[in-house]
Design a protein that fits this description.
single chain; 0% strand; mainly alpha
Length: 156
Amino acid sequence: MNVNATIFGQLITFVLLVWFVMKYVWAPITTMMDARTKRMADGLAAGERGKHELDLAAKRSSEVLHETKQKAAEIIAQAEKRASQIIEEAKSSAKEEGARLVVAAKADIDQEVYRAREALRQQVAALAVAGAEQILRREVDAKAHADLLAAIKTQL
C-alpha cells in the first residue's frame, strides 16, 4: 500500500467530513448555542430587573408603612381629642343637670316649708281659739270668730 494514497484518501475523507459538519451539523449547533446564550442573557436581565423591582417594592412598602404609621398617629390624636371633648361635654352636662336638680330640690324644699308654715298657722290658730274658748267660756259671735281667726293667721 502506498502512504501517499492513504494520506490523500484521509485528506479527502477529512475534507468531506468538514464540509458535511459545516453544512449539516455546524449551523444547528451554533443556532442552539446562540439561542442558549440569548436565553442566559435574558435570564440574567430578568434577574436584574427582578432585583431592581424588589428594591423598588421594598422602598414602596417602607413608604406605605411610614404613611400608615402617620395616619394611625393622626387618627389616634383625633380620637384622643374627641374623647376629651366628649368628657368635657359630659362634665358640663353633669354640672347643668346637678344645678337643675339643686334648683328643683330648693323649690321642693320651699314648697314644703310653705306648706308646713300654713299647717302650723292653722294649728296655732286652732289652739289659740280653743284656748280662748276655754278661758272665756262664753259664746263668741261666729262672724267675729272668723274675723279673729283671719287676723291671727295674717299675723302669724
